[in-house]
Design brief:
Layout (H helix, E strand, L loop, with lengths): L5 E5 L3 H11 L4 E5 L2 H8 L6 E5 L7 H10 L8 E6 L3 H9 L4 E5 L3 H39 L7 E2 H14 L5 E8 L2 H28 L4 E6 L2 E7 L5 H13 L9 E7 L7 H13 L9 E3 L2 H22 L3 E10 L4 E13 L3 E3 L1 H11 L2 H21 L7 E4 L10 H11 L7 E5 L1 H6 L1 H13 L3 E7 L5 H7 L4 E4 L1 H5 L6 H15 L3 E5 L4 H9 L4 E3 L7 E2 H13 L1
Parallel strand pairs: 1-2, 1-3, 3-4, 4-5, 6-8, 10-11, 13-15, 15-16, 16-17, 17-18, 18-19, 19-20
Antiparallel strand pairs: 7-9, 7-10, 8-9, 12-13, 12-20, 12-21, 13-14
Helix pairs in contact: 2-3, 7-8
């Protein structure tokens, strides 16, 4: 049963109360009071929806009660309809000025009295609906703000930036816009040096700056970590002034470090392009100036577009290519200067695309490292190498140890060791024939896990090679903690041998250090007789490079080691 609204009838005359009660007893729950003091006492205990109030009463009269109700926030919203004699015009005006909702006059006409009460209640219900609607709208706005705005920086988060940028471009279709993608140089180092609080202060300051410069003309968003995006009109963008402004804002924080923002810029020439792809293009332009500290920004161009289209093609076709055997393993021999023949080799994946031809790994490996497909590609190569070695051994043909590349993503797989071990068992191979090449990035990502995994593999008889030694910033630190078996010296050292006075000295010391640590050495990138002679003079025997052999198909590699075995 629906609960009735509550009406309080206030009159010191019992007859008047009885008449009014007769009009409303069917629709309302009724309360009665004889003066203002009784009303206040009842209101302390009972919720009331409407009051019919006689102005002339003993004790606290109607005017005093109206004043008391308005002073109390809990009671001020209750509609009050005053009852008066027909001649009390001045009293009616005063009551309305004090907040009465309406008035009815004596003697009471049932239809008029009921209509006036209904009208007042209808107005109050409408007001309540407006207030509720306004409250709901405020709540929706607050929720939307919470959903759309990044809590740290105070600007749009990634998804909201995408959505709002679409709206901005659609609403201003006649205006040309640029989309800029920013990040901070060495932000991880800043966090390590100054703690997260300082890093957050930098991000907040950047968010405030980007919000200020786009106010009323564009949009700013915090994408992730130290990455920001800005969309603003082309004719209002002066990138040099913009970067100078963010430099000054960050400098004002007084942080003792050179904190610089870099930008990639995509000039929006297709407003129908999804905004995330616009950001990708601007980000691609940004990536072209990574490490080039004198260049602070770059524009996306058609060459980048071609690269993007090629990447999309490779991502679209990678699964089919793997299942159809388009990927194959090439081998680059490692030669011993003393022996004059190949003593090991490195397995390198190539993609024989039916339309694009032979695709080198430098074009697809970084892409597959970003999307995780490199793990499956690595394991394809490992198995192909194991299959080749096994078939050669069964046929009584010569073999040499082969090293395979191990992407850092493999070390996030708890089954990595078991996968390697199961391959050796499946093909009945001695562990000394399969070598694993790791890079510095695998160590810097998760050093403890990497060390534990490699110790286990070494205990099974596998040799571990550190690839591109000397190309990173932490190579020596990694050597201190990680007992690898063989160092592969980065080709950059060899390239500088003839043009730098320091390179030969450094290389000589690296070789001495490796010998002291009882590590093997392979030098990569050897192309000339002069380079070979110098390396031989400082005790380097194992050489990999074009001077002896380029990477070659399996058939050519096997023919070469067979021919050399006959000598």
């Amino acid at each position: 049963m629906e609960k009735k609204p509550v009406m309080m009838i206030v009159d010191d005359e019992e007859m008047h109360r009885a008449v009014l009660a007769q009009f409303f007893q069917a629709e309302y729950e009724l309360l009665e009071a004889t003066n203002g003091s009784d009303v206040m006492a009842l209101l302390a205990e009972k919720r009331v929806d409407v009051i019919l109030l006689d102005l002339v009463m003993p004790g606290m009269d109607g005017f005093e009660l109206l004043a008391a109700l308005k002073r109390d926030e809990r009671l001020a919203a209750i509609p009050v309809i005053v009852t008066t004699a027909g001649s009390e015009r001045a009293a009616e005006v005063r009551a309305m000025e004090m907040g009465a909702a309406d008035f009815i006059t004596k003697p009471y006409h049932p239809a008029i009295v009921c209509c006036r009460v209904k009208n007042v209640m209808a107005r109050m219900e409408n007001e309540w609906r407006k207030l509720e609607q306004a409250a709901r709208e405020r709540q929706i706005l607050e929720m939307r703000h919470h959903i759309e705005v990044d809590a740290l920086t105070g600007i749009y988060n990634r998804e909201a930036f995408y959505e709002k940028t679409v709206e901005l471009l659609q609403q201003n279709s006649g205006m040309r816009y640029n989309l800029l993608y920013f990040d901070i140089n060495c932000f991880k180092i800043i966090n390590d040096l100054f703690h997260v609080e300082t890093g957050n202060l930098i991000l907040k300051t950047a968010g405030t700056y980007f919000k200020t410069i786009t106010e009323g003309i564009g949009l700013a968003g915090h994408m992730e970590a130290d990455h920001f995006a800005v969309c603003m009109p082309d004719d209002m963008l002066d990138i040099d002034i913009l970067l100078e402004g963010i430099d000054n804002a960050i400098f004002s924080l007084g942080i003792k470090n050179n904190i610089l923002f870099y930008a990639g810029i995509y000039s929006v020439d297709d407003v129908l392009l999804p905004v995330d792809q616009m950001c990708d293009r601007a980000h691609m332009a940004l990536n072209t100036i990574k490490g080039r500290y004198k260049t602070r920004y770059a524009y996306y161009d058609e060459k980048m577009r071609e690269t993007l289209l090629e990447e999309q093609m490779m991502l679209r076709e990678m699964e089919f290519a793997l299942s159809e055997g388009q990927f194959c393993v090439y081998y680059q021999p490692v030669y011993s200067i003393k022996a004059g023949r190949a003593v090991s080799a490195e397995a390198l994946v190539r993609w024989r695309h039916p339309a694009a031809g032979l695709i080198p790994p430098v074009r697809f490996v970084p892409l597959f490292e970003r999307n995780g497909f490199v793990v499956r590609l690595d394991r394809f190569a490992w198995e192909d190498v194991c299959r080749m070695l096994s078939s050669r051994i069964r046929a009584g043909l010569p073999v040499v140890p082969v090293s395979v590349n191990v992407s850092r993503l493999n070390f996030y797989d708890s089954d990595f060791c078991d996968t390697v071990v199961s391959l050796l068992k499946k093909y009945d191979l001695d562990p000394s024939l399969l070598r694993l090449e790791i890079t510095e990035s695998a160590y810097t990502d998760n050093p403890t896990q990497l060390m534990n995994v490699l110790k286990k593999l070494q205990s099974l008889g596998l040799k571990i090679l550190m690839d591109d030694f000397g190309s990173g910033y932490s190579s020596l630190n990694m050597l201190r903690n990680l007992a690898v078996d063989i160092l592969k010296i980065d080709m950059s050292f060899v390239r500088d041998l003839e043009n730098s006075q320091r390179a030969p000295a450094i290389l000589r010391r690296v070789v001495e250090m490796a010998h002291d640590l009882r590590m093997g050495i392979v030098v990569e990138g050897v192309e000339t007789k002069a380079q070979l002679d110098f390396l031989s003079s400082i005790g380097c025997d194992k050489i990999q490079g074009y001077y002896f052999a380029k990477p070659m198909p399996q058939k050519d590699f096997l023919a070469r080691i067979e021919k050399e075995a006959e000598r």
